[in-house]
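Morning F.,

Quick status update on the modeling queue. The single chain you submitted on Monday has been processed. Sequence for confirmation:
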Amino acid sequence: MLAGLGVPGLLLAGVDSLVVGWPVHAFLFSDEELQALHSAKMAAGQKLFGRGGTALNWYGQDFLMKPRGAQGYEWILENADVSMRMAAQASGGKVFPEVYMTFRSAYLWREGFAAVCNATKEWLSTFAKVGEGKVSRVDLCADFAMPLPRIDLGVEVVSRGRKRGRHAQIDTSEAADWQSGTRATGYQIGKGDLMARFYDKREEILHTGKVWFEDLWREQGWDGESPVTRYELQFRRNILKEFNVDSPGDLGYQRSELWAYGTEEWITVREPTPDTNRARWPTKRFWRDVQAAGSCFDDVRTGITRHVQSRPEYNALLAQWLGLTKTLLGLDINAFGSEEKAWRRLFASLKEAQRDPGFRAEWRQRTSKLSHLRIPGLRGF
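Structure tokens below.
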């Protein structure tokens, strides 16, 4: 077990890739600054700069202005930390987010995703009136000091996720393995909105040059020689909506829930047995450690599930609470022989919870999480 993280072999767990769009209600920069953007873009396409871009300092940050924009975006500015696409006109995000930011891995690991998002919104506010950011994509990952396990994708990978309205195993046409020569180097499962990748991270570093990961691993006790396997889940906007993840703040609450869904419901890796029901096969030991990595995202489990219809509904929750209350009262009436004593104990328990600091902290956290939901027809009392 490596220091600090509490899961055998775990070196890192966190957000490795992040894309966020911000709606802009108005741009605040001057006509001269607008002209500077146009001039930089024009210069970026000149032979003098190899048509690869030109330097631009934009509100205190150094960027490379690209010679061409993208669909809907007039300017693309990049540096070692981010790639930013910016529209020419502000419409409050009615069509698409006017600022679209892709955060690079090194920046996220260096500062932490929450600090990155907060600092970015604060910086954007210096030249635009921005609304709440919306997460378009997030990659969650966990790195383990262990060799890449051999996985029979067609047999050992079992899904409890829903596909075409019914429970189904993973479609093997959406699964692939990677090799270097005769050596397996990774696996990919799924495509589009939800994808999993498991691969030899040290092999990948040989191609990407992200050797700074090794320093992060050493801080957690890595010996500098052992193989490292990365388990990575990619969630895109359609899936994130089903988890009620809109803003970066929502993501802060739901990272553990996303990881749990991806590793406990969508796919699991199991040890085959003669049992014809694959869902009863025991989970492989290394996969139990992968599942446990979700506890290291500094979140609490909220219990909000993937399906849109499972958004918390007041009347449904009230009905559940009343049903539990009937059971509690029934138990206490049988124990005390008195309805009055049963009600008294119930009210005393509620008052005790109200005074408990831990309970108060959790309900405030839940209040923040659910702040975007509204109860139709609810009036004040």
